[in-house]
Amino acid sequence: MQTVFIYDGSFEGLLTAIFEVYELKSDTVHIVTNAHYTASFFEEKHEVATNTQKAKRLWKGILKNAKPTDANLIYRCFLSELPDMEQSILKYVQLIFLHKQSVAKDFGEAYVFRLAEINKKIGREKHRMEAFVRFRKTKDGIYFSSIAPDFNVLPLIESHFKKRYADQIWCIYDISRNYGLYYDLKKVEMVHLELPPSILSSSTSIFEEEELNYQKLWKNYFESTNITARANQKLHEQHVPRRYWKYLSEKNLLEW
Amino acid sequence: MNFDRIKEKLNILADAAKYDVSCSSSGSKRTNKNKGLGDSSGMGICHSYTPDGRCVSLLKILLTNHCIYDCAYCVTRKSNDIKRAAFKVQEVVDLTINFYRRNYIEGLFLSSGIFKSPDHTMERLIQVAKKLRLEENFNGYIHLKSIPGASDELMYEAGLYADRLSINIEIPTKEGLKLLAPDKNRKDFLQPMKKVRNEIDKYKSEKKLIKSTPIYAPAGQSTQMIVGATQETDAEVMYTATYLYKKYNMKRVYYSGYIPISYDSRLPAIGTEVPMIRENRLYQTDWLLRFYGFSIEELLNKEFPNLDSDIDPKLSWALRNLHLFPLDINKADKDMLARVPGLGMKSVYKILHGRKYRKLGWEHLQKMGVALNRAKYFITCDSRYFETKDYTPLQIKQRILSEGSSKYQKTLSSQLNLFS
Hints:
The structure holds two protein chains of two kinds. By secondary structure, chain A is an alpha/beta fold. Chain A has nine helices and eight strands.
């Protein structure tokens, strides 16, 4: 009978779950978050209590047997939140402990390939967010941006923005996961905010008066720099998929 | 800031700058200093893409579109009846900073029409860059245009503030230049290029001895050629490019399909289609030369002065050299793998790593993302099934073309070629 390991959705929780798979010597297992769990008659249920000690031991074990690239790969894939993510990571960890070496480049192995594939998606989304974040300056001088990435990439883009905008206060808020990064000129912190719905439109009650002017200038520039003789809508939408348009002032500024 | 006036200027001067294709923002090593603004040490970022599918990475504008020259291929030529405008230095600085702070751009690409004299123009461009670096502590990317005929002293100064310098030779052949831009001299283009190359070399050797040597144009220099404005062959374009890569250590040579903008009888008429496939094939050739170990003589020579438009240059080369194939994917060395049609460098690396663990078969190659529709005629792998028939080059070409559908299908219409 298959055993379902239910964890709380945190990275530590997942590591604990994998640790317990070994601890309980379970063969056919299935790991899900409690949010995704639906009870079934034909499965044995095992609830995982997140345990820092166990998580750390597994993490150390991974680093000892494989390389930092493997550990990094596992963490990045965790951020994808994809439905087969837990299973692929479990198989990957099992491969590491079986071969006692890094397996990151064994592309002929199906699960390694799957993780590499997910990692590619994550990398693409991370890069997109570094490109598509649009700051709007609020009345109290904060450069604010709201985004809703496909994957949970905020932890991965933090250092990029911290390095780049070292001299301005900024906040990047993930609306779909309801948390954000806030930089106060010294350090970056994780924040939870109650945002008014008007945050998406650049209303002057929240944002500086000049803000809209800059958005207009930017949109204006965007239109002037286009060459109509080379129009290629398909390529355009391939690079900037429609689901991101609502966050881009050059595509979305209506009152123009 | 008078937004309406700025808007009007931005319209005119962005529109005039858009024919410069370079928009890269990578390759610099400038890091954020003293908690200032910006960092250009990472990879380049395209912040948006225009409806023509081109990347928007830099604020690409002219300082002015007033120009004393009358080059036939250029929109800002003296004799063209268009609106003229000019930015003040401070206006460009403010725009750049405010766009950058909102994460719209990676930096500034500043070019200009030539007003009064080349030196006078170059000096203004440098003023903008200097102000951004010294007064605003701006560490974003700055791409400055080298103005043809600018003095060596100014070219030296430009490199102290800019990440990249570029000068467009525009017309690939001497004869073409004489025809379309009679007041310009090839030497005026090459002199600033030479100065920049020498300074970069000097910087590199001095840096080894003295750590505090001020950085000079860390992202190197680039240039651009217009294709399709004169009657040049692909070989002429690519031999010129190879010369520029070798002689002047170019980071990039860009190829820009000529967009008809003039009724001048020396040029293709307005409404002529932009040669986009040709442009694409030239870029593919450029990549083969820089990353795949090909030499220019293998791809273009007296017998093959032009690239095939219906198949890519690597496939075209492979069909002329069938005696080198098939290759065993599990044994062939890196250089030869890179020459297999359908294998990109990423696939090559995946194969090199993957085959250390096990022998690779078709299913592995497919998963790795190899374009098997092309590759299968040129390789063998760990499988009993492979192409056993001896096809002629023409047969292979037709089989590949009939299986795939090129994104250029509409313009290609290979049907006609069957009878030629």
